[in-house]
Amino acid sequence: MAGLPGAGQGRSPRAARRKGALTSRNHQKGPYPMELGLIGLGRMGGNMRERIRRAGHTVLGYDRNAGLADVHSLKDLVDALAAPRVVWLMVPAGEATRSTIAELAGLLSPGDVVVDGGNSRWTDDETHAAMLAERGIGFVDCGVSGGVWGLENGYALMYGGEAAHVARVQPVFDALKPPGEFGAVHAGRVGAGHFAKMVHNGIEYAMMQAFAEGWELLEAAGPVTDVREVFRSWQQGTVIRSWLLDLAVRALEEDEHLTALRGYAQDSGEGRWTVEAAIEHAVPLPAITASLFARFSSRQDDSPQMKMIAALRNQFGGHAVTSAAPESGGAGSGS
């Protein structure tokens, strides 16, 4: 595909030489190394770029924050990559993703592949895949879990798309996933990756809510005098031991009674989409639905349970937290 009509036209001799070198390297025997364009270098994207580079691949990153970027525009990114290209998006779901994919559709060439690694709604994937297919461009949707810990621990990956398109991206999946046999799955056709990640996040909502409710009850009741150490004791030998429990203990070590936090937790969309899908398919999801509505309750009061939810989201994903209101009230009271 490097010999597509127009490839290299209009570039300087230096850019053309670099293009040829990258093309030669990209077509070496075996899956390694490969080259990737990565759009979005925030909390997740920046760490993903570093992990992929550590695996020996070349990553060229673009971000609206020029201080983070390797190139200065989407066109520069596409021009710098050797065809056939793989371009991975880590941008906010919704309009930002839609507009970026639309712009890429006009820049990429037949044989290239676009990966949406954000938390897009799975129904958007079918639209994006069809639009890109008209131009001969492949599409893979990938749900990514791992938060701010993924750089060292690896990212759980759920991806959907045609087998040939997935195979093109496989070296990157292998670089990002945790060590060992598991941690990544070709979940099915286009949309399957984001659908699987959506359900994963719905389950996450319910698990966090259960820990939050248990923590509030322990804090409110008289007999237990050291709630943090009770949580810590559960980390070994119990049926509820988990990474979320470890993160809850970590949060309590930093702020034993979570007094520095306001009981407010945002929902990022996947919980709502999970409940909507359950309604569409007549699948009862009482625990996940209740956990979503519990998040809504945090909009009304300074909920103790939501302090734990906020603390957990900050621990695993680096999500922003809202400080507790000063006792004197005033502008920061959240009234």
- What number is the mean pLDDT? 87
* Spatial gap, N to C terminus: 60 Å
Percent strand equals 5-15%
Order of helices and strands: HEHEHEHEHEHEHEHHHHHH
* Total DSSP E strands: 7
Biggest sheet layout: 7 strands, mixed
Q: Report the radius of gyration as a whole number of Å.
A: 22 Å
Order of strands in the sheet with most strands: 2-1-3-4-5-6-7
* Fraction of residues in H or I helices: 40-55%
Structural class: alpha/beta
Number of helices: 13
Instruction: Based on Cα principal axes, name the global outline.
Output: elongated
Name the poorly predicted regions.
1-30, 327-335
Write up what this structure looks like:
- This protein has 335 residues and is an alpha/beta fold.
- 48% of the residues lie in helices and 11% in strands.
- It is built from 13 helices and seven strands.
- The protein has helices at residues 13-26, 43-54, 74-80, 95-105, 122-133, 150-153, 163-176, 192-220, 227-233, 243-254, 270-281, 286-297, 304-317, and strands at residues 35-39, 58-62, 86-89, 113-116, 138-145, 156-160, 184-188.
- The chain has a seven-stranded mixed beta sheet, sandwiched between helices.
- Strand 3, helix 4 and strand 4 form a beta-alpha-beta unit.
- Helix 4 packs parallel to helix 5 (122-133) and helix 10 packs across helix 13.
- The protein is elongated and about 65 Å long.
- The termini are far apart.
- 39% of the residues are buried.
- Mean pLDDT is 87; it is low at 1-30 and 327-335.
